[in-house]
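Technical note accompanying the year-one report. For the benefit of new consortium partners, we illustrate the data format agreed upon in the data management plan: each record pairs a sequence with a structure-token string. No post-processing was applied to the example shown here.
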Amino acid sequence: MDANPPDPFAVLAALGVSDARSAEPVLGGADALIWRVERGAEAYALRVFRPDQAEASEREVAAMAAAAAGGVAAPRVHAAGAWDARPALLLSWCPGRPLLHELRAHPWDAWRLGVRFGRTQAAIHTVPVPPGLRGHPVPWAAWAGPDEALATRLLAVPPRAEALLHLDYHPMNVLVERGRVTAVLDWANARPGDPRADLARTASILRFGPLGAGLPDAGARAARPALIAGWRHGYRRVTGPIGGMAPFFAWAGAVMERDLSPRLGRPDLPWLTPELLARVRAWTTEWRTRVA
């Protein structure tokens, strides 16, 4: 959360945009502030990063351009620049609503939504890695922290063909409308690597994320496994069977622990409890034991 958010109209002016009618803040991720901007009859998303994220914003632009060129729906960049040393992007406002919201409104469609979710992730993994993402300063495997045993085990796994990894692919970053995926958002973590890392990261989020919030208990219990089953089915219909996942699950669990532990107690994350973190640790330990 930004204690002193910038004036969006000042940011727009720095990008050369002076005809915006309105700029309304919307819920963003951990990496950026986001406003919905209206200019004439068109809507846009203004995304403002931290000052230390200049290179990250450039990589995100490269990833979105590569995804769009490869047939994956992604926001288009209309303007890029900086305000007060903070990188900023003006992106197309994509139609639809987050898949998570669609799931909560229509939990009986969980399997169908999961199939589309999985097919889209498979499509991402066919996109050629753009030059702007090569030589990433933090390879995907390093996300788990200084864990030499796990790193050694991952290096010993016969690699699959290098793919474009989203690494934050979850139901809040995928928009749907009328039964189709209309956009994949938030490419800040994208980099090249083994597609099984991206699958394991998504699997951990689907397993432990707050998918069922707002649903009756019975609906929540049914929606999560149905979504996960549909996701697996949709992905495998495109790629065929995926093997050798165990060390990647151990990696994804370690990444989730490292990511969530500092956020424990935040009032905007009521689902993040010590009990949930304990479940994540147990899951990670189980997979580490299997690949020890």
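Partners are asked to follow this layout when depositing records. The first strand starts at residue 22 and ends at 26.
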